[in-house]
Design a protein that fits this description.
41% of the residues lie in helices and 0% in strands. The chain has 118 residues and is an all-alpha fold. The protein has one domain. The N and C termini lie far apart (32 Å).
Length: 118
Amino acid sequence: MIKMDAKQELKVSFCGLYCGNCSKFKKRKCPGCQENSKAAWCKIRTCCLENNYKSCADCDEPGINNCKKFNNPIGTLFGYIFNSDRAAGIRLIQDEGYQNFVCHLEEINRMAIPRRKK
């Protein structure tokens, strides 16, 4: 099991992705969501920074699926293109913590939990 430190926490995006397995992050072409000041356009990032959340998992609002900032057209499109389920990532963090989230994504070598096929 991975022992998560502050650097590892910075690899968890605000919206439920894991930058540690992103090819751009690994090649140092992207600093990751938390450090990327160019991502000021992201409403999720802005909300988390304003509320001092590590991710949407720390939000007190009931149900990630009801959040308009989280469920925006860009995020939905991203989910289809990259076969990712960001909401499942947030729920995993809420249920099992950041460390288990990182361990799971390291184990499956992905930056997101895959969407389930319907």
